[in-house]
Amino acid sequence: MAEATETDFLKQQKGRRRIKNFLAAINYHDDDLQTTIKIMRMKLLEIQQRDSSAVINKPQTVRKIIFKFSGSKTVLHKHDDIEKDSRNMSHSETKRQKINNGGMQFVMDFIKSVGGSEAQFVIEKRLTISDVNPNQGRLLIPVLQLKNKKGFLTADEETMMGNKEDVSVWVFDPERRKSMLNLAKWKMSKECYVLKTNWNQVVKANGFKEEIVIRVLSFRVDDQLCFVLDRVA
Fold first, then answer.
1. In whole angstroms, what is the distance from residue 227 CA to residue 120 CA?
2. Within 114-212, where are the H helices?
3. In degrees rounded to 5, what are phi and psi of residue 192?
4. Which candidate, 43, 33, 34, 28, places its Cα nearest to that of 75?
5. Which residues lie closer than 8 Å to 52 by C-beta, 6 or more apart?
């Protein structure tokens, strides 16, 4: 028993020295240093005891102890800094993801409301200067950037485009206004689908500018190919 008591005493002494060295390292001065050391050590022991009694296999996070001093009074705060920083760093991304997921659900609900089916995510695109240039009058949808590599056309529509014929499609803008546009397939430096004819009116009505991000989905009402546009950012 005496040996155990002596061991505990040595541990206490070692702990006090560490705290004293820590305070010296940060140039902290206190008229009542021993009281400060006592308070800090008690708080550290409380944290250690709580951590030891935590549920086994509970995901661990690294904790950082921050000491704030006011006169001889010591206030100890415990923060799960890594977890907190991660939340802060990803806050904007999480918010954007929630908005995007919510927006996608609204789009799917709209498609159902007009009797649509076979909905497919076509592309999410940051508009380029050529996409909103009235002299160009078209939206380029690069084939290589399609979300669904199988495409959204029927065999007959593919044949029409192979013969350089346009396919008439309904396009619903972000305000769910409906316009009739033509869909073509162009072979440029890269193969692209092109929404044209009345595209300028869609751009003007929605105030589309360069760098605006839109999402495009395709669907069908009976056999009619339709597209719905949703503004993301």
1. 9
2. 155-162, 199-206
3. -135, 145
4. 43
5. none
Distance CA 167, CA 11 (A): 83
Q: Does one domain contain both 175 and 211?
A: yes
Amino acid residing at 83: E
- Asked whether residue 107 falls in the same domain as residue 130, the answer is yes
**Which tens digit of pLDDT belongs to each residue from 177-224?**
999 999 999 988 889 999 999 999 999 999 999 999 999 999 999 999
* 169 neighbors 183 (Cβ within 8 angstroms): yes
Task: Give residue 24's identity as a one-letter amino acid code.
Answer: A
In whole angstroms, give the CA distance from residue 152 to residue 140. Answer: 15
For the domain that residue 123 is a member of, what is the CATH number? 2.40.330.10
Q: How far is CA 82 from the centre of its chain?
A: 18
Q: What is the pLDDT of residues 20-52, one digit of tens each?
A: 777 666 666 666 667 676 777 777 777 666 666
On whether both 213 and 174 belong to a single domain, the answer is: yes
Q: Which of 6-15, 86-95, 96-105 has the highest mean pLDDT?
A: 6-15
